[in-house]
Write a structure and sequence with these properties.
The structure holds two protein chains of two kinds.
Chain A (H helix, E strand, L loop, with lengths): L7 H42 L6 H26 L7 H17 L5 H23 L6 H18 L6 E2 L3 H8 L1 E2 L2 E2 H19 L1 H11 L1 H6 L4 H27 L1 E2 L7 H12 L10 H18 L9 H22 L1
Antiparallel strand pairs in A: 1-4, 2-3
Helix pairs in contact in A: 1-12, 1-13, 2-7, 2-10, 2-11, 2-12, 3-4, 3-5, 3-10, 4-5, 4-10, 6-10, 7-8, 11-12, 11-13
Chain B lengths: L7 E11 L2 E12 L3 E5 L6 H8 L7 E6 L2 E2 L5 H7 L1 E4 L11 H5 L6 E2 L2 E2 L1 H14 L15 H14 L4 E5 L7 H16 L3 E5 L3 H7 L2 E6 L2 E6 L6 H9 L17 E10 L3 E9 L3 E5 L6 H8 L7 E6 L2 E2 L5 H6 L2 E4 L3 H5 L6 H6 L14 H12 L17 H13 L5 E5 L7 H16 L3 E5 L3 H7 L2 E6 L2 E7 L5 H8 L15 H10 L1
Parallel strand pairs in B: 3-10, 3-11, 6-9, 9-10, 15-20, 15-21, 18-19, 19-20
Antiparallel strand pairs in B: 1-2, 1-4, 4-5, 7-8, 11-12, 13-14, 13-16, 16-17, 21-22
Helix pairs in contact in B: 4-5, 5-6, 8-17, 14-15
Classes of the chains: A mainly alpha, B alpha/beta.
Chain lengths: ~325, ~525
């Protein structure tokens, strides 16, 4: 009756190994397949349409253009991984940068502490988002919709809608600084993606985001501190939004209460095109980076064609549909 | 059946298996029109599957059914309804925001001139409710009505389709005795109107009272039929449990004297009340009782999955503050939950990740969770478990038995002081079952205190040193291995009408006295 000493167990285990590796590899390929091929096709098409597209100068610009979006998308990936959604990212960016600028200009705070205060406010808003959607049991869509509205309003209220200018010169230098041809902003973004990817892959807390997004009850019964982890993730997302706010302020060399613009939609588009599932548990930093480049190449490349810039959101919308359909098809065939 | 022309629903040679497990084995079953047939049997005896086949939810693998002389093979519940066969579920499914009448007519709202004919709908609904002797305004929303009232609506819904045969699958499971009496009255109304009724219940008193014929199922087969309702309860219980055990009783090794887990006065409103017991090192305590007796709720509270309202849980004499599963796990109480698919495993992930979920936090601050760490842990914890299938693929692809082994490995990868197993072999084939029993026994032999909840009585009796019997949210008895015969356990587990599970468990003090006397 006992089969514990069956020697077949060992052989089966070793046989299973290579098969397993193959399966892992094919699933990785699948994940990168759709968006990656799409990206390559777009790069080829735009290089054919314009001789200026595939130049070092333009690619450097492209990196510069996507960094702020990318930093926010990194945070949004974490939120979407746990099966949440954060509609307040762009609004948090706008509010925190106005707050920092206001501290500096109106309250005459020293500049660096004012910037750090912006990050702290960002973390606080993230904490509120997290607590409302976990302990408060408000759906994250609704909770962050509310904080989005509040932050958009506060960004305007704080200076009565006025733009603030005149920051230390070194600050706006950040926006144009480059290491070789790579913008410093982009290096910061890559660093954030790298740290997040490492955290998600190798550290228990980061890995638990997949467990929580995959099946929250299983994660809870496994003893993971589900609600605190989720709260932390919302805090990270909002802090990253505040950090993106610094770069926004540096790039424009002014603090504009309307900085949120259409960042929110682009952030979610980037994550979704990358292949993350809004149901949670699926997605990687690498795939979001890919999604970021897809959106970046569309925005950048289309400026070289004669097409109206107003057509960009239309194209991005179509790409989202394509990406999700392609994803579902490859998932079904697996 | 006596006369040639008698109308009846006849089933012959019905067979149904799920994933290689045959749950209905060549069943012969006849329901004469104008009669009530009581269908009894233990959990998992195949009663619900049989009724699902008759009601068109499942299609049989073999066998045939004849409805009033016509061949009958429904492909769906709605087809069965069209032919005049209705099933009234144990669990009531209603749309709370819609009105009573809308719920009754859901899917076939009467129309007039392109609009819903509310007048006719409300009138018809009121008429049906009146026939059942309940006064509910058909225009009010279902939300806020009691379970019993919703049950009546469910029955009214069935009556309005003029069914020739109605199956009641444990309608009284969550009703008080007064409410049950009303349901029984409603059944007689149906019967007197000429319908054939199948009444499934664990409450043998009710079955005896209302049935003109009783059929007992066990292990997927009809084992006994009585042509009368007047059967002594003892005889019914005997028929329900009296089987040859399909696996050998194997006396577990004696446990140590040291008490590891102490539970005193544990209560959770609406679920269970005043549960007290001790488990020694290396001891297996079985939890027996019928579905809804509160066993799962008790062990979930001990594992921190739900909060208890009152009572003390101690491990090694230390009282615990059980705020969440994490606090129970740090105290050494691990639970293998009831439903591996929604509570135990993340099916999209592979086995190593699933096994490591509770333990990744134990790596040092400076260390990494690497693939080799995961694979090593998985290898070590499944060693000897004979998991068949690839550990590297998503657990979704493993069979039920192998998923269960991975789930066991997940919790045995740590070192539990108390291991709780809720339905450890549900939906698992016989071979895997034996292997899982071995794992459980080995665990106890290593000194782990084990709690086993199972709806399969033989499983509890075969594994446990002692058996705690629950019914209606209360602890009825703790029996030693020697005194825990199936008959004895069932006599405590089967609620008699009146002291059965009620929606408000705190209002019958007699049950409390019994629990105290028993423990």
């Amino acid at each position: 009756m006992t089969v514990t000493t069956d020697p077949a167990v060992d052989t089966r285990a070793t046989e299973a190994e290579p098969k397993a590796r193959r399966r892992f590899r094919s699933s990785n390929f699948r994940m990168f397949g759709g968006p990656f091929i799409g990206l390559v096709v777009m790069v080829v098409v735009f290089s054919l349409l314009s001789p200026y597209f595939l130049t070092a100068q333009n690619l450097s610009n492209l990196l510069q253009q996507v960094s702020i979006l990318g930093i926010m998308a990194a945070g949004a990936t974490l939120v979407i991984l746990i099966g949440g959604i954060d509609l307040s990212v762009a609004a948090v960016m706008a509010f925190t940068l106005m707050f920092s600028a206001w501290l500096y200009k109106s309250l005459e705070f020293p500049f660096v502490p004012a910037l750090i205060a912006g990050l702290l406010i960002g973390a606080l808003i993230g904490f509120i988002n997290g607590v409302l959607s976990t302990f408060g049991k408000i759906q994250p869509f609704v909770a962050t919709l509310a904080t989005m509205s509040i932050c958009l309003g506060l960004a305007l209220l704080i200076t009565n809608g006025n733009t603030l200018n005149d920051f230390p010169e070194w600050f706006s230098e950040i926006a144009v600084a480059r290491v070789w041809v790579i913008p410093v902003q982009a290096l910061l973004m890559f660093a954030i993606f790298g740290i997040a990817a490492f955290w998600l892959k190798f550290r228990p807390l980061g890995r638990s985001l997949y467990a929580i997004g995959g099946n929250e009850e299983v994660a809870r019964l496994s003893g993971l501190p589900v609600r605190w982890t989720k709260t932390l993730v919302y805090m990270i997302a909002s802090t990253l939004a505040a950090f993106a706010g610094w770069l926004n302020m540096a790039t424009l060399d002014s603090a504009q209460p309307t900085a949120a613009g259409n960042y929110l939609l682009n952030v979610i588009a980037v994550v979704v095109i990358g292949g993350a599932s809004l149901a949670g548990g699926v997605g990687t930093m690498g795939s979001t980076l890919l999604g970021l480049f897809v959106v970046g190449v569309i925005n950048n490349g289309m400026s070289f064609t004669g097409i109206s810039p107003n057509a960009k959101p239309v194209v991005i919308g179509l790409i989202i549909i394509l990406a999700v359909l392609a994803d579902r098809k490859s998932a079904a065939s697996g | 059946m006596m006369t040639q022309d008698a109308r009846a629903l006849e089933c012959t040679g019905l067979v149904k298996s799920f994933g290689g497990v045959t749950v209905v084995k060549s069943v012969e079953f006849t329901v004469p029109a104008g009669h009530v047939v009581g269908l009894i049997g233990e959990n998992g005896a195949g009663k619900s599957t049989l009724s699902s086949i008759i009601a068109g939810i499942h299609q049989p693998d073999a066998g045939a059914m004849v409805l009033d002389g016509q061949p009958y093979s429904p492909g769906s519940p709605s087809q069965a309804l069209d032919e005049g066969v209705a099933l009234i579920h144990q669990e009531i499914r209603m749309v709370p925001r819609l009105s009573v009448a809308e719920n009754i007519f859901l899917g076939r709202l009467p129309m007039k001139g392109g609009r819903v004919d509310r007048v006719a709908m409300n009138e018809e609904a009121a008429g049906a409710l009146e026939r059942l002797g309940v006064s509910i305004d058909p225009r009010r929303p279902v939300a806020g009505l009691s379970t019993a009232q919703q049950q009546s609506i469910e029955i009214a819904k069935a009556i309005l389709r003029d069914p020739r045969y109605v199956i009641f699958d444990e309608p009284s499971a969550s009703l008080t005795s007064a409410e049950t009496d009303r349901v029984l009255h409603q059944i007689t109304v149906l019967r007197d109107s000429g319908a054939g009724v199948v009444y499934i219940s664990h409450r043998l008193d009710e079955v005896r009272e209302i049935s003109s014929e009783i059929v007992c199922m066990r292990d997927g087969a009809v084992v006994r039929t009585w042509a009368t309702g007047e059967v002594p309860t003892d005889e019914l219980v005997q028929a329900m449990v009296g089987r040859d055990f399909t696996f050998q009783h194997q006396a577990p090794q004696p446990s140590a004297d040291r008490v590891v887990l102490t539970v005193r006065g544990l209560s959770r409103k609406g679920a269970f009340e005043d549960v007290s017991f001790e488990v020694r090192q290396g001891e297996i305590l079985g939890f027996a009782g019928l579905v809804g007796a509160g066993r799962t709720e008790v062990v979930r509270a001990i594992a921190g999955a739900d909060r208890a309202d009152a009572g003390v849980v101690e491990v090694d004499g230390e009282p615990l503050r059980l705020r969440n599963p994490g606090s129970a796990i740090s105290a050494g109480i691990f639970m293998v939950p009831e439903d591996r698919k929604t509570q135990g495993l993340n099916l999209a992930q592979n086995s190593p990740r699933n096994i490591a979920t509770p333990w990744e936090r134990t790596v040092k601050r400076t260390s990494l969770v690497t693939k080799s760490w995961l694979e090593h842990l998985a290898q070590k914890s499944t060693d000897g478990f004979d998991v068949r299938g690839s550990l590297a693929g998503p657990t979704l692809r493993l069979s039920g038995g192998n998923q269960q082994k991975v789930l066991l490995a997940k919790w045995l990868a740590g070192s539990p002081k108390v291991l709780i197993l809720d339905e450890p072999t549900r939906g698992v084939d016989v071979g895997a079952k034996m292997a899982i029993y071995e794992i459980i026994r080995a665990c106890a032999a290593r000194g782990v205190s084990v709690l086993v909840v199972s709806s399969e009585l033989e499983e509890v009796l075969g594994l446990a040193h002692r058996v705690l019997v629950m019914s209606g949210g209360r602890q009825r008895a703790i029996l030693d291995r020697a005194e825990a015969t199936s008959e004895r356990v069932m006599s405590y587990a089967v609620p008699t009408t009146g002291s059965g599970p009620s929606t408000n468990a705190s209002d019958s003090p007699d049950g409390l006295g019994l629990a105290r006397e028993a423990s």
